[in-house]
């Protein structure tokens, strides 16, 4: 099988490529990634010589390129996106361009090239925010996105479903909760806080720090995507979550503890505008239909993740200094 992976140089996509090449050694992967600030080929150093893996630098906004690549593929797994809520508040245009129009290009190409199997990676943020006693999100929860990022992802989900209903495109969608693990860009809560503390800097907690997220290890997410590709029903959506609701303050204190630092390293800063208070996922459909559930306990997963950032300081230091942007030129030339 030949897979076209979009956004494979980012956090979840690069972990997915590692996972897939290890677990499906007969398959071939093409990784289409624009290498925005969030794309880092250093995440894939150890697979770049693998003859089943090929990297193409390009934009999912480029309809001709997308069409050519989709033509070659059996399956498309679409991770590429602008993914950071804070950036979408500062400047939303690239979120609409990539998340909405880029997804549209991929859907058109999949439709026009023999109706290719299409899996769309989405997020629980499309459902909006929960109150403390609300039941967790599930596949029936109405959409209520509240940030430009979430709205752009919701929009792409609607397009993906429309291509199923209107054109019988064989799609599936996964809406997953907050991922953590290796290779996460150090602008997101966990890698930002770990790397700041390793650099002797304080950690910026938004508002009162009592917002809740449902944390899932990236390997559990990617195993879920694999099972959806194998056993998921065409046209269906699957919610994937970590069964691990934590306040930001709990996470902060855990990280401080692992790194032997005190609460004086916390800096309370202005809250994120429109900050969603709580997310939680009910993954019973994935459990019943796919036999999927998260296997990595949060305590174990976060401990190993903190260790990973401690042991891979060069990886994130090169990001924080901007040096990682030179890697592509060295490996692939100026093109
Ligand atoms: P990321 O920001 O780490 O990576 C995104 C990747 O997409 C980067 O490699 C970037 O270069 C690439 N990209 C961006 N615009 C592109 C374009 N126009 N053309 C081609 N490539 C482009 O993101 P992530 O955290 O790995 O998230 C991956 C996907 O998973 C996204 O669709 C996101 O919405 C979804 N998701 C993320 C989480 C999470 O907790 N991180 C949870 C649920 C769903
Ligand atoms: O729920 C899934 C989503 O999780 C994904 O769709 C997004 O792509 C991903 O970025 C993530 O969104 P969040 O906004 O939840 O993640 P972030 O790491 O930015 O923030 C997590 C929580 O921590 C949130 O309540 C905001 C807070 N926070 C974040 C940062 C970066 C802080 O308090 N301080 C910070 O510096």
Brief overview:
The chain has twelve helices and twelve strands.
Commentary on this structure:
This protein is α/β, with parallel strands linked by helices and 335 residues long. It has a domain of 233 residues: 3-Layer(aba) Sandwich (Rossmann fold). It is built from twelve helices and twelve strands. It has a seven-stranded parallel beta sheet with strand order 3-2-1-4-5-6-10, sandwiched between helices. The protein has a three-stranded mixed beta sheet with strand order 7-9-11. Strands 8-12 form a two-stranded parallel ribbon. The longest helix has 20 residues. It is globular and about 60 Å long. The two termini are 29 Å apart. The mean pLDDT is 97. Bound molecules: nicotinamide-adenine-dinucleotide and 2'deoxy-thymidine-5'-diphospho-alpha-D-glucose. Nicotinamide-adenine-dinucleotide binds next to α1, β2, α4, β5 and β7. The site of nicotinamide-adenine-dinucleotide has 31 residues, from α1, β2, α4, β5 and β7.
The level-1 CATH class of the domain at 2-184 and 215-243 and 276-296: Alpha Beta
Low-confidence stretches: none
Separation of termini? Answer: 29 Å
* Approximate strand percentage: 15-25%
Can you list the ligands bound to this structure? Answer: nicotinamide-adenine-dinucleotide, 2'deoxy-thymidine-5'-diphospho-alpha-D-glucose
CATH superfamily of the domain at 2-184 and 215-243 and 276-296: NAD(P)-binding Rossmann-like Domain
List keywords for this structure.
globular, 335 residues, Rossmann fold, alpha/beta, binds 2'deoxy-thymidine-5'-diphospho-alpha-D-glucose, 3-stranded mixed β-sheet, binds nicotinamide-adenine-dinucleotide, 7-stranded parallel β-sheet
């Amino acid at each position: 099988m030949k897979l076209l992976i979009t956004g494979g140089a980012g956090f979840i996509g690069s972990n997915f490529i590692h996972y897939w090449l290890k677990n499906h050694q007969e398959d071939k992967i093409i990784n289409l990634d624009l290498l925005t600030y969030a794309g880092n080929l250093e995440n894939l150093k150890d697979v770049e010589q693998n003859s089943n893996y090929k990297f193409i630098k390009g934009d999912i906004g480029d309809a001709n390129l997308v069409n050519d690549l989709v033509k070659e593929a059996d399956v498309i797994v679409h991770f590429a996106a602008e993914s950071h809520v804070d950036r979408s508040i500062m400047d939303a245009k690239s979120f609409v361009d990539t998340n909405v129009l880029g997804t549209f290009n991929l859907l058109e190409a999949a439709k026009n090239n023999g109706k290719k199997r299409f899996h769309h990676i989405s997020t629980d943020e499309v459902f909006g925010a929960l109150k403390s006693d609300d039941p967790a999100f599930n596949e029936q929860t109405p959409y209520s996105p509240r940030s430009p990022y979430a709205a752009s992802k919701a929009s792409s989900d609607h397009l993906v479903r429309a291509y199923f209903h209107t054109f019988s495109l064989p799609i599936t969608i996964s809406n997953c909760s907050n991922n953590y693990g290796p290779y996460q860009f150090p602008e997101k809560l966990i890698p930002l806080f770990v790397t700041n503390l390793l650099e002797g800097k304080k950690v910026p907690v938004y508002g009162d720090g009592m917002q809740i997220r449902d944390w899932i290890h990236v390997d559990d997410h990617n195993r879920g995507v694999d099972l959806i590709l194998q056993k998921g029903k065409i046209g269906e959506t699957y919610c994937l979550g970590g069964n691990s609701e934590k306040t930001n303050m709990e996470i902060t204190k855990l990280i401080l503890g692992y790194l032997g630092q005190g609460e004086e390293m916390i800096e309370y800063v202005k809250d994120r505008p429109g900050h969603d208070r709580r997310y939680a996922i009910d993954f019973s459909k994935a459990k019943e239909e796919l036999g999927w559930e998260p296997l990595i306990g949060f305590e174990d997963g976060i401990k190993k993740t903190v260790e990973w950032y401690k042991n891979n300081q060069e990886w994130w230091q090169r990001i924080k200094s901007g040096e990682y942007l030179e890697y592509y030129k060295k490996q692939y030339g100026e093109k």
